[in-house]
Amino acid sequence: MTTTAIVTGAGTGFGLALTRALAGRGARVIAGARDAARLRTAVADLPGVRPVPGDVNDPAVRAALVAAAGDRVDLLVHNAGELGPSPLPPLATYPADALRAVLETTLLAPLQLTQLALPALRAAQGTVVTLSSDAAVDAYPGWGGYGAAKAALDRYAAVLGVEEPDLAVYAFDPGDMRTAMHQRAFPGEDISDRPEPETVVPAFLRLVDERPPSGRYRAADLVVSA
Question: What one-character DSSP code corresponds to residue 225?
Fold first, then answer.
């Protein structure tokens, strides 16, 4: 049976790298991203990938992602996120509206998308993966807003895993990657020493293939040797 996956934030970075890998495995991928033109161009040559552009904060977009997947969802990947202001501000001056936007995209949208997809996930005894960060567990100056949202997302994944024992629910920490979001966190700095997102995908695939108990996993601990 063909695997059906929903991947948010699939237009660039890790989301696109994962979408390519899943398509290469013959999966049917429902790919979501805000930038419609960029998304359609990025996945145009990928077999089995259906682009569903739009902001995941929009209820109509979430409904469209689930509707496109149909009655069975084997894998739901919450990759879309929001960094917040750049340069990263300290908590003493963190704008409340900016924090609301970070929480909306990073925490509330994944919760509401999962709620819509749960019947199809249960039918497949599927897998839910949230993208975590070391900022969820370690304290870095300037990362209070993003880190708080990711910490809350980790807790959401942990509780969902307990409440839905037939599903596999993972918080996956990919580590630093060379992405546009990471560059925004370090404006003007050279981040070329960070690994490309494609190098992290094998660790993700190992996680979903081996299907260990629900929990939080680091890519660094899942690296597949050549």
Answer: P
Number of separate domains in the chain:
1
At a CB cut-off of 8 Å and minimum separation 6, what does 169 contact? 127, 128, 129, 157, 158, 160, 161, 214
* 148, part of any domain: yes
Higher-scoring residue by pLDDT: 39, 187: 39
Whether residue 226 is contained in a domain is answered as: no
pTM comes to: 0.93
Closest to 143 measured CA to CA, from 153, 134, 152: 134
Task: Say if residue 179's pLDDT is above 70.
Answer: no
Tokens of 186: 């370090």
One-letter amino acid for residue 18 of the chain: L
Among 146, 156, 170, 217, the one annotated catalytic? 146
Range of the domain at 131: 4-221
Strand ranges across the sheet with 28-33 = 49-53, 28-33, 4-7, 75-78, 127-131, 168-173, 215-218
Q: Answer whether residue 69 is part of any domain.
A: yes
- The CATH code of the domain that includes 17 is 3.40.50.720
For the question of residue 156 being annotated catalytic, the response is no
Question: How do residues 66-104 score in pLDDT, each as one tens digit?
Answer: 999 999 999 999 999 898 898 999 999 999 999 999 999
Q: Does residue 152 form part of some domain?
A: yes
